[in-house]
Amino acid sequence: MRRQSDDTASISFTGLYTGEVWRRNDLAPQWLGSGAGPWLYRGLVPVEWLSRTLGGSNLRTILLQRHRIMDHLLEHWIREEGVTQVLEIASGLSPRGHRFRQCFPELTYMETDMPGMAERKRRALEQEGALSEGHQVLPLNVFHREGAESMESVVEQCFRPGEPIVVITEGLTSYFTLEDMVPFWERIAALGARHPGSRYLMETYLVPRSGAFSRAIRMGANALGRLSDSDVTFHFADAGEVERVFRGAGFAGVRVHDPAEYREYVELPSNRGDAVVRVVAAGTG
């Protein structure tokens, strides 16, 4: 049985694999790994090899491309535009909050995930003395519109009104349909009323309709879907569709970032042909 649209708990399982990718590429400290991570990493080696052989890229390449571009954009906004508040939703075992708080201790950085993953992450950071009033890990369900685990409640309790927030989701939205996600994106856009100048940072995938690369990517997506008991979906065919949907959700400005734009000044793994991942930066105005 596939997971219902308001249940995000099973995604945390695939988050363990992603966390292992961060750890093996020196993006995360060793203590932020998991017991299941190495097993998952080894288990997907054949799929990753086949995807890269047939299509010129694979899931690990995509994960590193999106993560490093997001890091680059967030660092730019902090250094050049004075951003001081970040909300990362479904952060899993991402090392971003820990790394950015080390570099920018003035940041208010709230990491969130489903209760089980949030507690795992909280314990790991707490054992290393990495949590503080300005860096916490909290439970949040993206489909809750009210209550302690809603995005709105976390924002009200943890962030200063009148100042912008950067909201980040990485590795979340493709586990749900576009119909599931648009209302959530509308709620993020609405944060601009109390937090003018806020931004939303996420990734999406522009997958060809046919060809060897398309088959390889969809094979990897099906493998992840089986692991997470979900249907991995590709929402958009091109950047124009992304812009139309996000503007329709209430965002004032949208830019779709292609990894090819960043190869000269961000360390990114290479792929043969066009990259499938895109990083979306949407502003609330």
What does this structure look like?
The protein is an alpha/beta fold. Helices cover 44% and strands 14% of the residues. The chain is built from ten helices and seven strands. A seven-stranded mixed β-sheet has the order 3-2-1-4-5-7-6, sandwiched between helices. Helix 5 (96-103) links the parallel strand 1 (85-89) and strand 2 (108-113). Mean pLDDT is 85; it is low at 1-5 and 7-11.
Features:
285 residues, alpha/beta, globular, disordered N terminus
- Residue share in helix: 40-55%
Question: Class by helix and strand content?
Answer: alpha/beta
Order of helices and strands: HHHHEHEHEHEHEHHEE
The N- to C-terminal Cα distance equals: 41 Å
Query: Average pLDDT across residues?
Result: 85
Can you tell me the overall shape?
globular
What does the largest sheet look like?
7 strands, mixed
Strand content: 5-15%
Q: For the CA atoms, what is the radius of gyration?
A: 18 Å
Taking strands numbered 1, 2, ... along the chain, how are they ordered across the largest sheet?
3-2-1-4-5-7-6
Poorly predicted parts: 1-5, 7-11
Give the number of helices. Answer: 10
Number of strands: 7
Task: Provide a concise account of the structure shown.
The protein is of the alpha/beta class and 285 residues long. The protein has helices at residues 11-24, 36-43, 45-55, 59-81, 96-103, 115-127, 151-158, 178-190, 212-228, 239-248, and strands at residues 85-89, 108-113, 135-139, 166-169, 199-205, 253-257, 277-283.
